[in-house]
User: Which sequence fits this backbone?
């Protein structure tokens, strides 16, 4: 596959020729486009470039590196599992859940997002169930609901 023609995000078998005008997901045919349109999609938000940060000290760099090493990186396989999950796609049709996700996404940095997600998981049972569904779908929790990454 060349860089100009990555794989179709729907069937993952054929070179993509097109992009969804709304969410920019890549697809190869009308059939794949129709499959994609079965669930609502959202235009990606382009965030302005973060302000240039002052130079970090060695200790700050070491703390950041440790924090980064402990962070779970979502893989393309994880995204594919989420995209293929009818439960996840069904949950994302809920307008209240969409509003919560937009609110979390509007946070300035990862630390604020993590704090908000934790508070919402504790205070909003539906959101907590959705987060657990996401973690279960990507294999990040076991049957007992314990985080296993």
Assistant:
């Amino acid at each position: 596959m060349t860089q100009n023609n990555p794989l179709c995000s729907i069937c993952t078998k054929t070179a993509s020729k097109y992009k969804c005008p709304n969410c920019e997901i890549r697809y190869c045919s009308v059939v794949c486009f129709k499959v994609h349109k079965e669930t609502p999609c959202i235009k990606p938000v382009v965030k302005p470039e973060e302000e240039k940060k002052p130079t970090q000290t060695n200790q700050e760099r070491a703390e950041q590196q440790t924090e980064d090493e402990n962070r779970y990186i979502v893989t393309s396989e994880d995204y594919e599992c989420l995209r293929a999950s009818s439960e996840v796609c069904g949950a994302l049709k809920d307008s209240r859940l969409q509003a919560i996700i937009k609110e979390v996404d509007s946070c300035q940095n990862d630390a604020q997002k993590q704090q908000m997600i934790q508070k919402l998981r504790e205070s909003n049972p539906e959101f907590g169930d959705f987060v657990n569904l996401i973690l279960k779908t990507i294999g990040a929790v076991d049957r007992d609901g314990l985080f296993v990454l």
User: Anything to note?
Assistant: The mean pLDDT is 78. The chain is about 50% helix and 5% strand. The first strand starts at residue 18 and ends at 19. The longest helix spans residues 110-123.
